[in-house]
Specification:
With 178 residues, the chain is mostly helical. It contains eight helices and two strands; from the N terminus they run H-H-H-H-E-E-H-H-H-H.
């Protein structure tokens, strides 16, 4: 169905949505669970915004399920970053929303919070240095994909994903903690 949709068959989109909705919901819930406690964006709203971005994709050659959910993760990340920027502007320089770190996160530091905008900027800098490592972070952290699913989505070996994941975590820790 993903390939048919990517080839321009818009009718298949109605059939595809029920198959991906539950996973998109889990993904959005994971994102928002990491946000600050008083976050006003709801899971359903995040899914709807991501869905609109995904539907607008033109001529994407969907490789597989993991590739689709990786793109969905990127869309959700962009939505949350845009939302945080908007809230900052509304507060005229008020603090950005914090993104709590847990053990599965990039930096193993209990109780530490990261500014979502700072994380986004660090990932953008990482992508300029090593785009594959930045993609591994997006797929593993933001999308919650396993090592194997990330390897499949990026068409690389699981060993490469593990190595890139470790390198990216170390680099991001230095960038975010100074």
């Amino acid at each position: 169905m993903l390939r048919a949709w990517g080839d321009g068959d818009r009718a298949v989109l109605d059939q595809l949505l029920p198959h991906v909705h539950d996973e998109l919901h889990r993904q959005a819930h994971r994102y928002l669970r990491r946000e600050r406690a008083n976050h006003t964006l709801q899971t359903t709203a995040l899914i709807n915004e991501a869905y609109l971005k995904l539907v607008d994709q033109r001529a994407v050659q969907w490789q597989n399920r993991a590739h689709f959910f990786g793109i969905a993760a990127q869309a959700m990340r962009r939505i949350l970053v845009d939302y945080a920027r908007t809230k900052n502007r509304e507060k005229r320089g008020g603090p950005a929303g914090d993104l709590p770190l847990d053990e599965a996160m990039l930096i193993a530091a209990t109780g530490q919070n990261i500014d979502l905008l700072a994380l986004d900027e660090a990932l953008t800098r990482l992508a300029a240095i090593d785009e594959q490592q930045a993609r591994v972070v997006e797929f593993k952290y933001f999308s919650g994909l396993s090592i194997e699913e990330t390897a499949e989505a990026l068409s690389i070996s699981p060993a490469t994903v593990k190595r890139d994941w470790q390198m990216a975590k170390a680099w991001l820790k230095l960038e975010l903690t100074g």
